[in-house]
Each structure stands twice: as C-alpha cells, then as structure tokens.
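User: Here's a structure from my thesis project, written as structure tokens. My advisor, Dr. K., wants to see whether a designed sequence matches the one we expressed. Can you design one independently, without my sequence as a hint?
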C-alpha cells in the first residue's frame, strides 16, 4: 500500500489564495500461487474510501466533495484538485473547487494500463473510471469552529449534493 499527497497554497493578494493538490493511493498485490486465493477476490482490496468534505485523521479516507462520506471504496486512485479561495470579509471564505480522479478496483498493473484513459462508469465499481466533482464551499470561522456549506456536482450520478457542517468534528458523521 502506498499513499502520497501534496497540497500547495499560494496567496495571490490579500483576498485570494490559489490551492492545488495531488493525492495518490495504490495497492500492490503479490502474485498468488495455485493453492492461494487473493484477498481481492473477497472484496478486501478496497483500501481507500473516497467521499465527503471532512478531513479525517485516517490514512485511507480521501476528501472528495459531492460524494457522501466514504461512499466510494477503491483500490487505486490518482486525484488532482484545484480551488481559488476568496475572503470578502474577516473569517468568511468562498471557495470554488474542482476535483478529478482516475480510480480503479484491481491490481496496480491492471489499473495503470488504463489510468490515463479511463472509460468505465465509477458508480459500477468494476472498471478504471474518471471521477469528477465541481462546486463551491462557503465557510465561516466561528467561535464554535468552522461553519461550512458545500454545493457540489459529481459526474455519473448527475446529482448536486449539499453538505452542511457546524463546529469541530470528533467522530465520523455517518
């Protein structure tokens, strides 16, 4: 299992910040002998849970706005994100964002063959697929913690989903 993430924030002026990020997660499976059964055949290969808006301390949870928290279990993924954060007033932020990912459900060698030209439907959970999300988050830093409202669209299901959160989260929301 290999996980890597990188995020860079750069102030454009006193009100605007550009955000760019990359997140990668891969599972490298050993070849099995004739008398062995791969853990992937039992559905245990999906080590990464994509979805939700909340940053979790677990290494296998990946924020992907527009999906429900932990909605999409995958074995392999490469994700890019971009956003522009605008602060029109103290402690208030508007952040339009865009996420795109290539996701897979099998061994790394099977995934990487189609990772850069995915043609599956991600919600079927069986082929290398493209996952896209676009939306906007309104945030306010209050004395009880952040107050967030996110509106995001996700390809494939063609739904606009809302997320609303108040205060600091101390456990999973679902």
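Assistant: Designed independently from the structure alone:
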């Amino acid at each position: 299992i290999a996980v890597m993430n990188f995020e860079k924030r750069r102030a454009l002026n006193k009100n605007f910040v550009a955000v760019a990020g990359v997140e990668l997660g891969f599972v490298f499976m050993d070849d099995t002998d004739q008398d062995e059964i791969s853990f992937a055949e039992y559905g245990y290969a999906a080590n990464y849970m994509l979805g939700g808006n909340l940053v979790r301390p677990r290494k296998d949870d990946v924020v992907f706005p527009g999906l429900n928290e932990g909605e999409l279990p995958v074995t392999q993924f490469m994700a890019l994100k971009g956003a522009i954060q605008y602060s029109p007033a103290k402690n208030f932020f508007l952040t339009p964002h865009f996420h795109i990912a290539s996701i897979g459900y099998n061994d790394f060698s099977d995934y990487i063959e189609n990772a850069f030209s995915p043609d599956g439907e991600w919600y079927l959970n069986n082929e290398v697929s493209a996952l896209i999300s676009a939306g906007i988050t309104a945030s306010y830093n209050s004395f009880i913690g952040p107050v967030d409202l996110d509106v995001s669209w996700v390809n494939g299901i063609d739904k606009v989903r809302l997320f609303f959160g108040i205060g600091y989260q101390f456990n999973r929301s679902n």
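When you compare it with your expressed construct, this may help: The mean pLDDT is 85.
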